[in-house]
Amino acid sequence: MASSSSGRNTTLIPEAKQGLQRLKTEVASEIGLSDYENIDKGNLSSRDNGRIGGEMVKRMIESYEQEL
User: Where does this protein have compositionally biased stretches of type Polar residues (predicted)?
Assistant: First the structure.
């Protein structure tokens, strides 16, 4: 199945991108990465990045389930 996309990610809902960034910063702060916005993300361990992403998904699922 061929894709007509140019291979670049596009932002469909700009407000969602801002909200995800706030959530990411909040989660990072809670796990001890208080200066997350200014850290070189390439120097973070896979474990730290995974913890942040995993917690974000967990919270999004919880939020969705509460709305049902």
Answer: 1-12
